Amino acid sequence: MDSSASSVPVGPLERALHAARALVLADLVADEVAEPDVVSFVEDSVAQRRWWVEQWPEGVDFVAGLVAQDVQDALLERYGRWPLCPVCGSGDPHALDVEPELGADPHWVCAKAGVLVAAVGSLGSVRR
Questions:
Q1: pLDDT tens per residue across span 76-118
Q2: What are the structural domain ranges in the chain?
């Protein structure tokens, strides 16, 4: 193996994509839904968002929220709502939303109660 390959600096796009992958995977693990087919939703989203940021480099800070939304949409189509709100104890189960929809520092929010629940990647702190 060529040791010079490991010294290539990682750019902001790759850092953002790796961080987004890690944050969303952490939330999936916290909810115990990180099955191989679900993880493939994350990988598909990361690949699509790589292209998206290459077209609009200013959007690099939005990648984590967008990957979270992509995975949430994919899960809804195949399995149902995710992540379920841990705040509202009664009524119909509902999913949390990602806010801002297009912005930096994304959080999971209960729109019904108007409560910020956790940063994307930190659902484990409220699921214990």
A1: 999 999 999 999 977 788 999 999 999 999 999 999 999 999 9
A2: 10-127
SS3 category, 109:
strand
Tokens representing 121 are 């990647």
DSSP assignment, residue 50? H
14-20 long-range contacts (CB < 8 A, ≥24 apart) are 16/53, 16/60, 16/61, 16/63, 16/64, 17/46, 17/49, 17/50, 17/53, 17/63, 19/63, 19/64, 20/46, 20/49, 20/63, 20/64, 20/66, 20/67, 20/68
Question: Judging by beta carbons within 10 Å of its beta carbon (0-12, 13-18, 19+), is residue 126 exposed, middle or buried?
Answer: middle
**CA 38/CA 22 separation, integer angstroms:** 14
Say whether pTM exceeds 0.85: yes
